[in-house]
Amino acid sequence: MCRTWVVAALVIVVSVAIRVSGVAGRDSDYYLDRWNDKNRGKSKAITPEDPTAQIPSPLLSPWSRLPPGATGKLILTSAATSNATTQIPDDAQLLPPSLVDPPATSPAFRNSSERDPKLLKLSVSPMLSLFNIRRVANTPCLSSSGENGTCFNARECKRLGGVTSGSCKTGGNCCVFQVSCGGLVTQNCTYFVNENYPKPFDGVGSCQLTVNKVNPSVCQLRLDFDSLVLSGPETTDNRCLNDRFTVSGGSSTPIICGTSTGNHMYVDLGRTSNTQAVLTVITMGPAFERSWKVKVSQIPCNTDYTAPNGCLQYYQGVTGQIKTYNYDVSTGLQLSNQDYTSCVRTERNFCGIQYTACADTVNVDPESFSLTGSTTTQVGAVVGQANCPNDWLIIPCLSDSSVDPTANCVDRICGDAFNVREGVTVGDAVLYSFVKPFTLVYHTDDTEGNAAVLESGNRGYCLNYVQQPCV
Question: Rounded CA gap, 340 and 442, in Å?
Fold first, then answer.
């Protein structure tokens, strides 16, 4: 008995396979002839109630059919004819969505004035509707692990070298791209990590990542240091002699080392389509538990998040925090040979900006702003070009008055107190600037450590900003 059932099942499977292969191989001419044969001689036709109206291309409900004996009207609309009403015969078989639009080369694809009005539309193969292929939109996504990614189907993600992590609301999976030493970036939003990340790396050598433009419209890279922990500078001149992070191939960027987790950097690639950038991490010297995870985002030209020319850091939003590289109130040291501009995007209906030094709960004397002086010898606030010839921060027309922006206005400050009043040693002030665009120009020379009496222990700066509304 069991053997009989098995044989019967095999016969059914073979019959279905033969039937499917025959149906799938028929073209639209076959179905057109069948349709015409079926309806030849019938006086009842699908005809618009308005004889002047053309029958538009219908968008039919999936697998729907009028019940036997029922009559009705299907309202067919298109951009060309929005009021055409068509009478549906009792035996009309409505087609699923995948059978609605045939290829332009098919004989069934005709102008409405040429085709048989009874012909709704035919497909090259009626089996295609069973296997609709939905293309996944490659939109940004947030993975289940908290990383930024791009939506792809799982197979395409794997082919491109990514790892799926969570799903996308619009379909597909969130695909995260992560590369290490010797890697090549070919996808936007790629993470550059140390070997065996998230485990630390304590070896020596050079780790490079090459970044290609994913699109000719890309003008910049934004490097977000989700993690950047390298050994710090030597303490004689605060230079990065052991570990260092560098960028070549784009605009000039400073050499940095130490800890800059949470900071970022913009690299200008220009408008040449074949420009490459190379990110390099060099590790040398004593054993140290280093780790890095740098998100590489590619920024198109001329967007509202494209950094202005010459801005190494670019902050957006009404509020934010600006820090120098390797800043830390406990262990950070101001790096030598820094020379760059930080910019704040002017938000709509805002005309000024307020700066305050970040809170310092570690040191008795706040060191959130310490460019010159030392941890043992305070010099207080220092202002002006003559008094700040080596290390400085330039903020155009910086004042301690929000009412009169030009009152006690200075451009260049240094020292170890955030103030525009020379010699003030106690407390940091709330300062304002109403000069747009909002910029901060930071400079240090090559003598920053213990080699100079008034340079040891400086941290750099950390400033909070709040944009001021126009009045």
Answer: 6
